[in-house]
Amino acid sequence: MFEKLEDLAKNNKKISDFHIRTGSPLAYRQTGEIVVVKDVPIKAQDLKDLMSMNCNEVEIERFDKTHELDSAVMLSGLRFRANFYKTINGTAAVLRRVESQIPNMDQFNLPQSLYDVVDFHKGLVLVTGPTGSGKSTTLAAIINEINKTRSANIITVEDPVEFIHKDNRSIVSHREVGKQTKTFAAALKAALREDPDVILVGEMRDLETISLALTAAETGHLVFGTLHTSGAPSTINRIIDVFPPEQQEQIRAQISTSLKMVITQRLLKTRDGAGRVGAFEVMKCTSPIQNLIREAKIHQIPSIMQTAVRDGMITMEKSLEELAKSGKIDPGAARSEH
Q1: Rounded Cα–Cα distance for residues 31 and 33 (Å)
Q2: What is the pLDDT of residues 312-338, one digit of tens each?
Q3: How many CA atoms lie within 13 A of 152 on its CB side?
Q4: Which of 35, 223, 284, 338 stands 20 to 30 A from 264 (CA)?
Q5: Which domains occur in the chain, in start order?
Q6: DSSP for residue 133
Q7: Closest to 234 measured CA to CA, from 259, 262, 200, 193
Q8: pLDDT tens digit string along 212-231?
């Protein structure tokens, strides 16, 4: 199993994820599709070996107790984000490729308004979208741009750490949940005492983390975070709904002043089937948007976005239309995605 796995990891860059399940053949995802390698069966020992080679004793103990574990795996010198979990047939794992080469903003077809983020010095910027839509890559490209162009102290908190940035004009410290810190919230609380300019929170999962991120953004720090939401209105509602009803009015006011931008992205198969291309929605927190958030009229945000092209906003519908018009994706795919 390991020989085939390492061969595929090394020689097929289009594979984004490996699926390794006890009692089933090896499978992987390539340009969005699942491919099964029928002649490579997975044994229980394969998963044990994979875990023992890549995880420490504390992690293995945690997996035995909780039946789930986020970690990192190395194959042929390549890094993968790993999730180990138990199924009715035994242990399984999904390995997601982590590109070791730090991406540049210029190598992607990013909306021009995303470049404005590099000049932000405070506030909250959220990158949202489904799993596997490239959120981590977009954030890594933005952090890289800040690192190259500004003198700042950047702290990242991730689960696990994906892209490892070296000091450039900025200094960068990486912390991994479960290894260098217990929780996102604990690391974020500590970060406020670590003289940060920029804080990246890998995932805003709970009330305490979201509350601390808002406070950090409000008190003069630039905070980046991710959420598994499908657009600006659902992102803002998700944050508000985490809090008890009696706090929600105050949180709306806090979001209206600290939120700077919501970027939503999807990855779609290119028309020729050779790769994938990103579609982006961008909401900037302009005065009209701030007022809608404060007045709990969040459902009206899309109509503001449609008419705010000059402010650098773009709806997902418009982004998909433009990709179809330029021939990058199939028009039918654009309609089905929307």
Answers
A1: 6
A2: 999 999 999 999 998 888 887 656 665
A3: 25
A4: 35
A5: 2-98 (3.30.450.90), 105-337 (3.40.50.300)
A6: S
A7: 262
A8: 999 999 999 999 999 999 99
